Amino acid sequence: MASILNVDQINNAAGTSAVTIDSSGNVQIPGHVLQVVNTLTNTRTTTTSTSFVSATDVVATITPTSSSSKIYVLFNIAYRSYNSNGNDAIIFIGISKDGGTTVLAQNRLRSYDYGGSGSIVESSVSASFLDSPATTNALTYQVYIKLTSGNNATINNDTPDANSSVTLMEIAQ
Fold first, then answer.
1. Contact 47, 157 (CB under 8 A)
2. Given Cys at both, which of 14, 58, 115, 147 links 143, Cβ 3.0 to 4.6 Å?
3. CA–CA separation, 123 vs 107, rounded Å?
């Protein structure tokens, strides 16, 4: 014979909540990963803009199961910066939530010219941050790029060999 135990919360020996079970039966254990969303793309985006532009297909969407959850955001971007006029090339890469004007986790990437003949760098950059969205609505995180000095900046320049990714993890609180 099977037994059923109906509870909303399991406390530790000190009496504080250790595990919560919501009305849908989802178990919430603080600090545990509830879900992971990952996007991997080799779609190329090239820009000459000094304002942030979205990187095509370097985007991921997650719908938190709880408004108390945190979202751990990690992105890894293959990029190229180029300047032909004997100067450094400087680009910025970051990520924005829900198309907002604030670009988070910005990285300044600079290629140096030591010979007066221009500069080019092909590499990758990773960044992460912990977001506290306080919602159960779908959240979209989009990578952005801009050029501040040079001829152009490219994400996934060596398509199909270059890949960029966005990983989102919902962390229970």
1. no
2. 58
3. 13
Retrieve residue 42's tokens.
């080799």
Find all residues with CB under 8 Å of 34, minimum gap 6, and list them.
26, 28, 64, 65, 66, 69, 170, 171, 172
Which tens digit of pLDDT belongs to each residue from 57-70?
999 999 999 999 99
pTM: 0.83
For the stretch 27-50, pLDDT in tens is 778 889 999 999 999 999 999 999
Domains, the chain, with CATH or none: 30-171 (2.60.120.760)
Q: What is the DSSP string of the chain?
A: -------SEEE-TTSSEEEEE-TT--EE-TT-EEEEEEEEE---EEE--SS-EEEEEEEEEE--S-TT-EEEEEEEEEEEEEE-SSS-EEEEEEEEETT-SPPEEEEEEEE--SSSS-EEEEEEEEEEEEE-----S-EEEEEEEEEEESSEEEESTTTTT--EEEEEEEE--
